[in-house]
Amino acid sequence: MSRQVRDVMSRGAVAVEPMTSVARVARLMREQDVGDVLVTYDRDLFGVLTDRDIVVRAVAGDRDPNTVTAGSVCTRPPVITLSPDDTTDHAVELMRRHAVRRLPVVESGGCPVGIVSLGDLAATEDPRSALADISRAEPNC
């Protein structure tokens, strides 16, 4: 049964400005127990930075996490986004088509309001699935 994205998304996603150091972003990810942050500039979505982006684009590229910025290693627009009014079925279809596990949710003016993850969808659409169980588990850090 499809619902609206607004009903399953994580609100108040962690956001940073493009000039934030990757080291600072990594600490925020640890503190907030998230695997991605929205990179915003003047309330608009500038990009998305994932833990994998930090590893592949910064650390594995021998770039100093204290000086490399979120804006220089994030995935830049066109980033696939959802509206809060989109359906969860549409979110699943976009994740499949683009092979992503998280999608920013933005209002019509481009202002980010949250993130919907594969785990959010699993917990809502199939609460007894292994993915839903894993998504509800306590962090292991």
From TrEMBL:
Q: Kindly give the InterPro entries that the UniProt entry links to this protein.
A: CBS_dom (IPR000644), CBS_dom_sf (IPR046342), CBS_domain-containing (IPR051462)
Tell me the Pfam families matching this sequence. CBS (PF00571)
Highest taxon listed in the record's lineage? Bacteria
Residues in CBS domain copies: 9-65, 74-134
- Keywords from the UniProt entry: CBS domain, Repeat
Q: Where is the signal peptide?
A: none
Q: Tell whether Methyltransferase is among the UniProt keywords.
A: no
The protein depicted here goes by the name CBS domain-containing protein
Q: Which organism is it from?
A: Streptomyces gibsoniae
